[in-house]
Amino acid sequence: MGDSIRELTKKAAAFRDERDWSQFHNPKDLAISISLEAAELLEIFQWSGPDTEADTEEKLAKIKEELADVLMYCLLLGDRLDLDIPEIIEAKLEKNKKKYPVDQAYGKADKYTAYLANKEKGRAL
Q1: Are 104 and 115 in contact (CB under 8 A)?
Q2: pTM (2 decimals)?
Q3: What is the 3-state secondary structure of the chain?
Q4: How confident is the model at residue 125 (pLDDT cuts 50, 70, 90)?
């Protein structure tokens, strides 16, 4: 998959620092930028009707651009807050394993509260 998350974070931070943009990268503005870039990613699919796939080279190129922007801002926010991205992803995956047990969540799109309600009733879905 190429460079590690830590290496990519260093590259994104170096790009930022070479331009003296760190002064603009506070947590609030980085979080806003993540949301704005995610909206641009979503915009690619807007008004596309039943077309939900990245089925053209043009669409895929746009998706790559916007996804890269989202990911870079995520890395920069993690860097700004001195977070270990692999560590927080691992922690979230462990938390989600508990919220979405395979035997109950497999093939379903229910919110985790549906599984909690079932657990409290003492029965599986």
Answers
A1: yes
A2: 0.83
A3: CCCCHHHHHHHHHHHHHHCCCHHHCCHHHHHHHHHHHHHHHHHCCCCCCCCCCCCCHHHHHHHHHHHHHHHHHHHHHHHHCCCCHHHHHHHHHHHHHHHCCHHHHCCCCCCHHHHHHHHHHCCCC
A4: very low
- Give the separation between CA 79 and CA 73, rounded to whole angstroms: 10
- pLDDT 10s digits, 59-109: 899 999 999 999 999 999 999 999 999 999 999 999 999 999 999 889 988
Reading the block at residue 19, the tokens are 């331009």
Residues 84 and 4: their CA atoms lie apart, in Å, by 12
Residue 84 is encoded by which pair of tokens?
């270990």
- Cα dihedral value 45, 49, 54, 57, nearest 10: -90
CA angle 112, 77, 24 (to 5 degrees): 140
- CA–CA separation, 39 and 42 (whole Å): 5
CA distances from 35 to 16, 20, 71 (A): 19, 22, 11
